[in-house]
Automatic annotation (TrEMBL):
Organism of provenance: Bacteroides oleiciplenus YIT 12058
Keywords from the UniProt entry: Signal
Protein name, as recorded: Aspartyl protease
Signal peptide: 1-20
InterPro entries (UniProt xref): Peptidase_aspartic_dom_sf
Amino acid sequence: MSLRFFSLCIVLIASTTAEAQSKLTFKDKFMYTDVSVANKRNVHNVLALIDTGNTLCMVDSTFAVDSCGVKENDLKTVLVNESQVKISSVTIDSIHFCGKTYCKVYCLIADLLGIYQKYAPKFIVGANILKSGAWKFDMERSIIEPYNANKRAAGTVFKWKNHKNYSDVAIDYIIFDSKIDGKKTRFAFDTACKNNKLQRNFYTGATEKIQKETANIENKLSIKTVDLCRDVKFKIDKSEFTLDFVIGDYNIGLLNIEFLQGRSFILNYKKQTLELL
């Protein structure tokens, strides 16, 4: 059976049809798209969160056990994040995403529903799938599709760095060098981040206290008082942007999808570029 399954994956990977286009759904500043999760003869179509800030794909633990046939003895414990949080992992038979089937996908398993509650997806598309090539995010048509990574750029191109340039950031993080008021800083482009964030003790401008929903893999969703910085101007290369930021506790800043102001873009993992169209 495993040989037949492998052959099926090869056929599906080779297929290049109109099905390569996948609809984008936007909700609460997050981007979602349809994926098919297949494991142990179980196949489910789910709305998945696209997460450029997650090195690995992630599956909700309840969905994994109740729908995907994942057993306790399939799980392995791994450590994630700088705080060394323990979390389970498993290899899922296949993930079908944007017209291509990825076989034997290594995924983290977490209680996403318990942590993120109303925002919890059943599946998160991480960088271990996204870094396979380049992707065009067409905001006008609300579509994501594979893109020719070797095609010559026609728009504004931002070159990014990653853990090979900065050893203190997670593997496959998309890092943009930036400046705020002439001071150098770094941002991770994280499409699964609800709020844009600046690192603590970096920003010297005026702030105000507000109530915000916050959650991460270590802490479930709650309301917290945070410092908000309004209309902060920052530069990436020669382009200037203005956004509101909250003050976070990371060693780098975070940019969510708001950074692109609704513009279509190409995320090219092969060339490590983001091209604004």
